[in-house]
Amino acid sequence: MKISNTQTLACAAITVCFISAGCVQAPTSQCRNSVGLLSGYLNPPRVVSKQYTNSSGDVLSYYFEENIEIIDPQNQQSAPLVVFVHGGAWQNNGYRSKGFYERDEKFDKFFKENVNTASANYRLYQPPFVNPHPTQRNDIIDFILHIQSTYNPSKMCLVGLSSGSHTAATIAVIPNVEEALNIHCLIGVSGVYDFSPLDLRETDPVAASTGISITAFGAITDFYDNALDSTVDPVATIVANGGNYDLPTLIIHDTKDTLITYPQALAFAEYVPDLPGIDELVAVTGEFFFFGHVTNIFNYTAGRIDCNSVYAEKATDFLEEYLVN
């Protein structure tokens, strides 16, 4: 396992205050302009809402952003596809989360020249026992199967944020996932991967020893206790499979994240295969003012204290190596 630490870059800052988080430093418009981020979306994607039906018969929405059409006319095979899995403590948000398609110019160019993207709604968890795990995982699997049959991408990579990273990881650890679902790589951002050290009855807001903020993820006790199978825990699944996990994986996590703390990334990275020339774990060094929680990986300034883009560059390098090539 190789760990890369991004370095903080200096830029002019203004003070932004939040009732719950106190005052922090955020980039000025000068800093934003230096990386080309304009007001609103820089390059609004061609997002058209579509629908898929899961195996339970529920009709759910998704989008498919087609940047590149058929790349193999003989096999009618479309471009590689990035499948985004949104976060929100398993209970909130949806497929149009701007954390996926609000991209800076440099990274937007990479996407438009190399891959298509898609993201789907899944049934949201409602405590204490509505849509428990593995509901979210199963819905995303159904979505992947729908995308495969509808668009026939050459190969796919899962990219998950926060609780969505957990859901993506529960799919990535399925044995022979490349053959079964055409998933060839995973990028996990600020995810929950290992439930074994968590005191799910913990009442303190957060502690590095437990690895998750019970305040932010208030449903975690019910979510875990009411899970219908053991696949709620990606690390435990790998261990149950004899420690075997060979899917190319990039983990991005802020070392100062107080919602899902850095030990979660370390626990998963222990099993991630070594990749030639790639850092399997990118340790972001306290650059986000939303409790250190990374919420956008292809936008220099979204939620950022500074303008460091090293981790996003590593993510695009990873996609180019393991998805595009």
Strand content: 15-25%
Classify the fold: give the CATH topology: Rossmann fold
CATH superfamily placement: Alpha/Beta hydrolase fold, catalytic domain
> How many beta-strand elements?
11
The string of secondary-structure elements, in order, is EEEHEEEHHEHEHHEHHEHEH
| Widest sheet, order of strands | 1-11-10-9-8-6-7-5-4
Give the overall form: globular
Counting copies of identical and different chains, the oligomeric state is: single chain
Keywords:
single chain; about 325 residues; alpha/beta; nine-stranded mixed beta sheet; two-stranded antiparallel ribbon; about 25% helix
Could you please describe the fold and organization of this structure?
The chain has 10 helices and 11 strands. With 325 residues, it is an alpha/beta fold. The chain has one domain: Alpha/Beta hydrolase fold, catalytic domain (Rossmann fold, 3-Layer(aba) Sandwich), CATH 3.40.50.1820. The strands form 2 sheets. It has a 9-stranded mixed sheet with strand order 1-11-10-9-8-6-7-5-4, with helices on both faces. It has a two-stranded antiparallel sheet with strand order 2-3. A hairpin with a 3-residue loop joins strand 2 and strand 3.
Walk me through the topology:
Layout: E1 3-5, E2 13-18, E3 22-27, H1 29-34, E4 49-53, E5 59-65, E6 81-85, H2 98-101, H3 105-114, E7 116-120, H4 135-151, E8 156-161, H5 163-172, H6 177-181, E9 183-189, H7 220-225, H8 234-240, E10 249-254, H9 263-269, E11 281-284, H10 310-324
Parallel strand pairs: 1-11, 6-7, 6-8, 8-9, 9-10, 10-11
Antiparallel strand pairs: 2-3, 4-5, 5-7
Helix pairs in contact: 4-5
